[in-house]
């Protein structure tokens, strides 16, 4: 085992794997390691588990296994480190959306967390590098890192390039909205097909400020990925360089024993929320960041989002409600340029530690400056797109435990209208085609909460169709489900308690008046108390829709949206 100094040094790096590699009472384990090609010197190395969420069936994930191979090479070329790849699952929201398959989407976040925890925990990896693509992959990876609390880096698979059709830039949401345009009679069959064929040109996660790019940006701001990880496109040279940089970075984390709990502090989460607000990110950030914070026991609630939303403006003109894609920001300095600007204005905590082993401020010292003449993606604080955050937490009789609204400001901030109730999203498309949904309506989609669906699916098919049908400014939508980052319009999700738990949303009837007020942050059903009491009188909790398998287990364990939908709380 060499001299004592050397052994002591190596024991520090292989704090976990030494249980397998150094213990003389573990000969069978060591025999297994010889079988996978270990040389004598490898037994002294720190083992880095490299987990890829790569799979063939999704553009966001199709290239991740290739990235993992490059990462492994880099790790193995780093003195004292040995990389071992493993793989976990994913769900493509873009493909599952609008189907029952989407019930598995949020479930996959926790399955990813559980599977990474399981593999790394059982095999005693000293460090973790996770390579996620589609949106739930990222919080799933971070939750596992938080639970394991071993040196960890997330390397985001990167954003997709824009598609092109008839001179227009396209992205996945163009395909969702094309359905509504077709229903409204504004799109020919040929153009419908043309958009579908051209929307997504190849590998990479959905290109706008949808949930994948939102979570990647939030996690970079949190300090858990290398600078630029969130804006380096999937197929860029910079993404390859990032793969070549993780070995040196993870070695520093191992040497200095910098762990997720040292990085993911309360201040770091505030940085992440600030960046989500500035970028106009997805509502999913609320439940994912709450769940990620729980993995390291940092208290974080929906109300913290409101506090930050009250003081942080939206500066970015990204899709879905704006013009630009993440790849555009990459051309102008990426997320570090945005963070550098925010730091210079005192809006970020600069002293938070990151996976470079340095602080946020140190990382940003050499980042490019945003040029407000050259680019119109990020506006200066003096001329924001919206003076306060777009994510608003509303309470009221319809949401006693809170709800999350996405208010771009373009649709106004107050809405009152008659309810048009749908149990699940399936009949909404019919409702649009038959004219059941009219200007001024508040569409209610219920019984799709974390327990009720189960799995709290995203409602991009209905919201995309509403926008495509030209009703985006005149119809509001509330739900106990959630939204994809591609959703825009006047929308409120995460309604807690959900219908399945007897929340008032379960008792709404067609034509009841609903008031949404994102100035005073209220969401109320304007029906008198006596009528509400009458409707509630004989209510019994419905049986779970799933009776076995993962959806059953999930429905049994999942907590409310306000609690991050975590599945590991008593
Ligand atoms: C286009 C939206 C994407 C498919 C998604 O799931 C999200 O952003 O949440
Ligand atoms: Mg999604």
From TrEMBL:
Q: Has the keyword Ribosomal protein been applied to this entry?
A: no
Which cofactors does the annotated protein need, by name?
Answer: [2Fe-2S] cluster; Mg(2+)
Report residues binding Mg(2+): 93, 135-136, 458
**Record-annotated residues binding [2Fe-2S] cluster?**
60
What sequence ranges are listed for the domain Dihydroxy-acid/6-phosphogluconate dehydratase N-terminal? Answer: 45-363
Provide the alphabetized UniProt keywords: 2Fe-2S, Amino-acid biosynthesis, Branched-chain amino acid biosynthesis, Iron, Iron-sulfur, Lyase, Magnesium, Metal-binding
Q: How is the cofactor bound?
A: Binds 1 [2Fe-2S] cluster per subunit. This cluster acts as a Lewis acid cofactor.
Domain Dihydroxy-acid/6-phosphogluconate dehydratase C-terminal, by residue range, is 376-565
The EC number of this protein is 4.2.1.9
Q: Does the keyword Transmembrane apply?
A: no
Query: Per the record, a Pfam family?
Result: ILVD_EDD_N
Catalytic positions are 484
Tell me the PROSITE patterns matching this sequence.
Answer: ILVD_EDD_1 (PS00886), ILVD_EDD_2 (PS00887)
- Note the superkingdom of the native organism: Bacteria
Q: GO: which molecular function terms? A: 2 iron, 2 sulfur cluster binding; dihydroxy-acid dehydratase activity; magnesium ion binding
For this protein, what reaction is catalysed? (2R)-2,3-dihydroxy-3-methylbutanoate = 3-methyl-2-oxobutanoate + H2O; (2R,3R)-2,3-dihydroxy-3-methylpentanoate = (S)-3-methyl-2-oxopentanoate + H2O
The record's top EC class is: lyase
User: Modified residue N6-carboxylysine is at which positions?
Assistant: 136
Q: What exactly does this protein do?
A: Functions in the biosynthesis of branched-chain amino acids. Catalyzes the dehydration of (2R,3R)-2,3-dihydroxy-3-methylpentanoate (2,3-dihydroxy-3-methylvalerate) into 2-oxo-3-methylpentanoate (2-oxo-3-methylvalerate) and of (2R)-2,3-dihydroxy-3-methylbutanoate (2,3-dihydroxyisovalerate) into 2-oxo-3-methylbutanoate (2-oxoisovalerate), the penultimate precursor to L-isoleucine and L-valine, respectively.
- Say which family it is in: Belongs to the IlvD/Edd family.
Q: Which PANTHER family match?
A: DIHYDROXY-ACID DEHYDRATASE DAD, DIHYDROXY-ACID DEHYDRATASE, MITOCHONDRIAL
- State how it assembles: Homodimer.
Q: What name appears for this protein in its UniProt entry?
A: Dihydroxy-acid dehydratase
Which gene is this protein's source?
ilvD
């Amino acid at each position: 085992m060499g001299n004592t100094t050397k052994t002591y040094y190596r024991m520090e790096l292989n704090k976990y794997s030494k249980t397998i590699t150094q213990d003389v009472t573990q000969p069978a384990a060591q025999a297994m390691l010889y079988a996978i090609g270990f040389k004598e010197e490898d037994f002294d190395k720190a083992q880095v588990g490299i987990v890829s969420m790569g799979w063939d069936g999704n553009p966001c994930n199709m290239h991740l296994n290739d990235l993992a191979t490059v990462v492994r090479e880099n790790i193995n070329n780093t003195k004292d480190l040995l990389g071992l790849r493993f793989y976990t699952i994913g769900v493509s929201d873009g493909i599952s959306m609008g189907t029952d398959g989407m019930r598995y989407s949020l479930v996959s976040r926790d399955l990813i967390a559980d599977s990474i925890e399981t593999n790394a925990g059982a095999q005693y990896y000293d460090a973790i590098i996770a390579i996620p693509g589609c949106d739930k992959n990222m919080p799933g990876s971070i939750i596992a890192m938080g639970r394991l609390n071993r040196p960890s880096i997330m390397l985001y698979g990167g954003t997709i390039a824009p598609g092109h059709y008839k001179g227009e830039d396209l992205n996945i949401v163009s395909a969702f909205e094309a359905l509504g345009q077709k229903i409204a009679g504004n799109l020919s069959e040929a153009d419908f097909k043309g958009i579908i064929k051209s929307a997504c040109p190849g590998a990479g996660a959905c290109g706008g400020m949808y949930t994948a790019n939102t979570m990647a940006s939030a996690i970079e701001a949190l300090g858990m990925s290398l600078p630029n990880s969130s804006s380096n496109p999937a197929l860029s040279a910079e993404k390859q360089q990032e793969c070549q940089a993780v070995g040196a970075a993870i070695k520093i984390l191992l040497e200095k024993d910098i762990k997720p709990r040292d990085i993911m502090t309360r201040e770091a989460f505030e940085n992440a929320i600030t960046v989500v607000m500035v970028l106009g990110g997805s509502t999913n950030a609320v439940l994912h960041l709450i769940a990620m914070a729980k993995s390291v026991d940092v208290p974080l609630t929906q109300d913290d989002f409101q506090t930050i939303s009250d003081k942080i403006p939206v500066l970015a003109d990204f899709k879905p409600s704006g013009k630009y894609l993440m790849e555009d920001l990459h051309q102008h300095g990426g997320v570090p340029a945005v963070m550098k600007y925010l730091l210079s204005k005192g809006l970020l905590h600069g002293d938070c530690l990151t996976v470079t082993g340095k602080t946020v401020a140190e990382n940003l010292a050499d980042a490019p400056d945003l040029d407000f003449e050259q680019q119109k993606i990020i506006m200066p604080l003096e001329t924001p797109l919206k003076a306060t955050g777009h994510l608003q937490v509303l309470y009221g009789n319809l949401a006693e435990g809170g709800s999350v609204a996405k208010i771009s400001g373009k649709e106004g901030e107050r809405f009152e209208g008659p309810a048009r109730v749908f149990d699940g999203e399936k009949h909404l498309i019919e409702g649009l085609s038959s004219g059941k949904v009219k200007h001024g309506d508040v569409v209610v989609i219920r019984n799709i909460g974390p327990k009720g669906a189960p799995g709290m699916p995203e409602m991009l098919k209905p919201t995309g169709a509403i926008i495509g049908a030209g009703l985006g400014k005149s119809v509001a939508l509330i739900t106990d489900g959630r939204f994809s980052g591609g959703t825009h319009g006047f929308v409120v999700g995460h309604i807690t308690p959900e219908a399945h738990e007897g929340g008032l949303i379960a008792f709404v009837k067609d034509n009841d008046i609903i008031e949404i007020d994102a100035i005073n942050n209220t969401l109320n059903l304007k029906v008198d108390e006596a009528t509400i009491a009458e409707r509630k009188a004989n209510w019994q909790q419905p049986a779970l829709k799933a009776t076995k398998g993962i959806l059953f287990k999930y429905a049994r364990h999942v907590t409310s949206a306000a609690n991050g939908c975590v599945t590991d709380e008593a």
